[in-house]
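Why does this matter for the project? Reviewers at the last site visit asked to see concrete outputs rather than summary tables. In response, this paragraph embeds two records directly. Each consists of the residue sequence and, immediately after it, the corresponding structure tokens. Nothing has been edited or filtered.
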Amino acid sequence: MRKAILAILMILPSIQNAHAAPIYTFPVANCKATYGKYHHDYPATDIQAKKGCAFVAPINGVVQDVNRKDVWSGKTNLGKDRGGLSVSIIGEDGVRYYGSHLSKVEDGIEPGVVVGAGQKLGEVGDTGSARGTKPHLHFGISYQTQPGDWEIRRGVVAPWKYLDAWKAGKDLSPAKAVANAKAKAGK
């Protein structure tokens, strides 16, 4: 009996570790990526990476918005078009995650599709208002709104501390910060 209990106690930590996998993952996979703590005029982050690097879902969720056509023009500079090719998902934590300036959106990524953390959504690029700049992923964290709401999806919470945690393999949820931003906005 003691041997059986001892064997269970020895196996238990490995079982617990197997179930302790992070629910969040860094949104650029298999490439060197750098980012700053600040964005120009609203809370977001530009993640610098080579064109074609994988943009992946940072958490399990459902695709909300997909833009496969780059219609941005410097002549009009419409806010709704600045992101170029983009994907928004609503994470299982209730938070909206947005990636834009993509060079490609993966086949099968459409509104309503369920995606898993780490699943490829598209590829880093320079579409929209990023034309002529170094390729990067504009990454925004926000609260849920109606599909197509470009002002909110671009970001309401600074992502850098979450990105730092996810890159280190730690779970840090932006849900509370997003709820506070939503309450402050009166939404």
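We now turn to the second protein, recorded in exactly the same manner.
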Amino acid sequence: MLYLFLAPDEYLLGQRLGQLKQALGDAEMASLNLTELDGARVTAADIIYHLGAMPFLAARRLIIARGYLANLESRLGTAKSPNRAAQDEARQVLTCLADQPAGNDLVFVEEKLDKRRALWRGMDGTAGIEQLSRDGLLAVEDIATPDARQLPGWIAKTARQEGIAIEGRAVQMLAAYVGPDLRCLRMEIEKLRTYAAGRSITAADVQLLVSDSGEALIWDLTDAIGLRDGRKAMRALSTLRRNDANPFYLLTMITRQYRIMIKVKDETARMSGNEFDVAGRVGESPFPVKKAMAQSRNYSLVQLEAIMDRLLTADVGMKTGADPATELDILVAELTRPRKRN
């Protein structure tokens, strides 16, 4: 079988190649029937030779060529200055792929291919990758890293495949805390499974065990400040201090959250959209943007800008001799003070 893996995520690529290697059978014999080629150093003749080689005491061989097609594409040149040798090689390899040599698997691993160019569309009567795929001769698989919209679905699917129960809120928090590092996400899921010991993984588990959960605690603080709930805000501040959060770090993170609120408030005033749309436009992750969209409704843009001025004053005070803990207490007390009624 012939494969083309496009824009591969490192973790997903490892999984997919692992499946193909496992299909070779016994691990010791499989290593004798596995060939990896550097696409910048091989030619069509090398590809064809390895594809036609007989398996050694096994049913098939696996050949992995990394970057070969992209390298060939770059050598083809332009319509005004074509590289004849590269064109001949492209026809040679495309013709070989169309002939479907039996018995071995060939995988092209490519970061990117231009679908407007000859390798994809075909050349001088020779079928290109697009036609080979349409005819079922070449399996094209996009195994790119899931984007922000797809990531929660990937987490839920991965957990389900492993027989792990996980709450929807926990899925969302994992996606926000870890981001699109799939290998790290997989390790965090396994850690949470061990901790949960058979029960469903909860949002509280994620907040307790997953690194970078400090940002969620900061949002708890800014949530309370946005609601002008002084008691809840002080509890959140106390929790952050028990986690040994540095006062300057806390002030920096609080300032960051309010800065995101200003960006979101300004952007949504011009154009509406969900957190994914707005996140793309303001250059932030969807999770903090979703929080900011809800919190910023408690403020006018003028009030948010005034808070930024107050945060700057607190920063200057902490750097010029004021006790940092006391300064933060005063700041939170001021920001949660009830609005004056007109």
